[in-house]
Design goal:
Layout lengths: L1 E7 L1 H6 L3 H13 L6 E9 L15 E7 L2 H14 L8 E12 L10 E9 L5 H16 L7 E12 L2 E2 L9 E7 L2 H8 L2 H10 L3 E13 L6
Antiparallel strand pairs: 1-3, 1-4, 2-3, 2-9, 4-6, 5-8, 5-9, 6-7, 6-8
Helix pairs in contact: 4-6
């Protein structure tokens, strides 16, 4: 599975009329795309920095995820959207990601009041993309499993970065991974980040991470064209 992720700035959301109107317009656009396997719009509700790491350079107010079976399907859908009118979103920051689900509680099973935290990760100077993947998807992932309180953990590895439809270097969009943490309630959230297991995991993260930008978010599944 390949995911095309579009970062929306606060200006993008305002230009589209605010979060609800943006969701409506994006939903209509997604229904016009073929070969999308699933789609979600995630909106930032709290951008307080909840991490011992510095905040990174890339910020967003929302992001759109479109899942495809193949890279070819993804490219075709993006071109279809551009041809149909792209809501001014296709010239911004796009990320091509591979998804790894480590703890797979179904989000639909989470009760009202559950929390989702998303973090943008930037690798440390001197750490290659391959070294980042090895550490993050290997030992770091194993250490996260010892942390209490959460029910779902997803690692999104950035494979490529695009601006205005063109691939750009890492320095232009220094994001290497995106973490999704799901918590059943605020108590689980607090227990996770107050735990000794989190302290140990953060210490390991300092070996390969330079910055972490944190958000609390709300995510909404979008209807897709299944014809």
């Amino acid at each position: 599975m390949i995911t095309h992720l579009i970062l929306l700035s606060s200006e993008d959301v305002a230009r589209l009329g605010g979060p609800e109107e943006a969701r409506s317009q994006i939903q209509t656009a997604v229904l016009g795309l073929r070969n999308v396997r699933s789609a979600r719009l995630t909106v930032v509700v709290d951008d307080e920095q909840r991490s011992p790491f510095a905040r990174g350079k890339v910020e967003c107010a929302a992001f759109l995820e479109l899942d495809f079976d193949t890279l070819s399907d993804m490219r075709s859908a993006v071109e279809e959207w551009r041809a149909a009118g792209d809501l001014g979103l296709l010239d911004g920051v796009h990320l091509v990601i591979a998804k790894k689900v480590d703890r797979a509680a179904d989000p639909a099973d989470l009760r009202p009041g559950s929390l989702m935290r998303v973090s943008l990760l930037g690798r440390a100077d001197g750490i290659s993309a391959a070294e980042f993947q090895t550490e993050w998807w290997g030992l770091h992932s194993e250490m996260v499993r010892d942390m209490p309180g959460y029910v779902r953990y997803v690692q999104n590895l950035v494979l490529d970065r695009h601006i205005k439809g063109q691939s750009v270097p890492h320095s232009a969009v220094p994001v290497d991974g995106i973490v999704e943490f799901w918590f059943p309630d605020r108590e689980g959230f607090d227990a996770c980040y107050a735990s000794d297991a989190f302290s140990k995991t953060a210490k390991h993260g300092a070996e390969f991470l330079q910055d972490i930008t944190t958000y609390l978010v709300e995510t909404t599944p979008l209807e897709i064209n299944e014809t």
